[in-house]
Structure formats: structure tokens, C-alpha cells
Amino acid sequence: MFLTIPTLMTCTRIVAIPLIVGVFYTPLEPATRNLIATLMFIVFAATDWLDGYLARRLNQTSAFGAFLDPVADKFLVCASLLVLVHLQRTDVFVALIIIGREIAISALREWMAHIGASKSVAVHMLGKLKTTAQMVAIPFLLYDGVLFRGFDTGVWGQGLIWIAAVLTVWSMVYYLQKALPEIRARISH
């Protein structure tokens, strides 16, 4: 069950990273680069939903897929944020908050799983809202143009990425609070 269709779809998100970054090093017009990178991000980000759906539908869920899926998501988001910082479309502080939280919560979840308390840091609605805000903000910022006679994706993307940063901190505090009783119990023994 290593090379299932859902797992291969998850792998495409990792393969997408150099492709999205590479678009910005092509001799294409800036607006064309922005559009291609935006469409690529949207297509590859959509595989996150699709691979999970297919894994359940085809009964091809696996421990490897459960491990790889969030890793692929984090790679895609972090790489896109670094591109956006490089293009000066988002603040480095926002990228540090989001990337730092991803590292911290991933480490916390790994440790909690190691001590048999992974349910205390299970995915919560705050984390889902944070992810949604990120996944809408990033393509807006990658596109960085005007749609529909006045919808400035750069402005909306900036607002959403800051909302994502706030939700990032909020969800991190939530997960740490949930883990704290287990941490205290382990330290006192």
C-alpha cells in the first residue's frame, strides 16, 4: 500500500514546490508568471482534499499516507511563503510566525504521539480555519493583481495572511494548552 493513488497525489504537492518556485525564474512576463504560479498552487493544494477523499473511498488509507499528507501541506505552504517574502508580497514576520508554528506543533504532535497522548493535540477547528485562511491568501498573493474590475488580490491576500498569522498563534496556544496537562503529568513522574 506504499504507492497508492492517494499517496502519489500527496507526493505531487512535494514535486510542485520546485515547479512553483521555478516559475518565478523564467523569462515570462511578471503577470504570466503570477498566473501560472497561482494556478499551480491551486491545483496542487486541491490534491490535499482529493487524496484524502480517494484514500477513504478506495480504502487505501495508510500510516505512511497519514504521515506524508501533513508534511506535503507544510512544505507547499512554507515554500510558497518564502517565495512571497522574496517577492516582497508578504512580511517576513508573518512567514516566521506561520513556519515557526508549523515546526513547533509538528514537534509537539510527534512528542505527544511518542508518549501516547496524541488525542490531546488532535486537529481542531482553529487549525482548520488557519489552514483555510492560508490556502486562500497564498494564491491571492501569488497572483498579485486585479480581478473582476477592482478586486485587488494583493490587498485581500495581505489581509488574509495576517488573519492566518493570528489564527496560527491562537491555534498554537490552544494546542499547547491541550498538551500541558499531559506534559505536566510526564514531568512529575
Automatic annotation (TrEMBL):
Keyword entries, A-Z: Lipid biosynthesis, Lipid metabolism, Membrane, Phospholipid biosynthesis, Phospholipid metabolism, Transferase, Transmembrane, Transmembrane helix
Report the leader peptide range: none
Entry's family note: Belongs to the CDP-alcohol phosphatidyltransferase class-I family.
Q: What class of enzyme is it?
A: transferase
Bilayer-crossing regions:
155-176
Q: What is this protein called?
A: CDP-diacylglycerol--glycerol-3-phosphate 3-phosphatidyltransferase
Q: Which reaction does it catalyse?
A: a CDP-1,2-diacyl-sn-glycerol + sn-glycerol 3-phosphate = a 1,2-diacyl-sn-glycero-3-phospho-(1'-sn-glycero-3'-phosphate) + CMP + H(+)
Pathway it belongs to?
Answer: Phospholipid metabolism; phosphatidylglycerol biosynthesis; phosphatidylglycerol from CDP-diacylglycerol: step 1/2
Q: Where does the protein end up?
A: Membrane
User: MF terms per GO, please?
Assistant: CDP-diacylglycerol-glycerol-3-phosphate 3-phosphatidyltransferase activity
Q: Which domain of life is it from?
A: Bacteria
List the gene name.
Answer: pgsA
Topology within the bilayer: Multi-pass membrane protein
Which EC number(s) does UniProt give? 2.7.8.5
Q: Which InterPro entries match?
A: CDP-alcohol_PTase-I, CDP-OH_P_trans, CDP-OH_PTrfase_TM_dom, CDP_ALCOHOL_P_TRANSF_CS, Phosphatidylglycerol_P_synth
Q: Which Pfam families match?
A: CDP-OH_P_transf (PF01066)
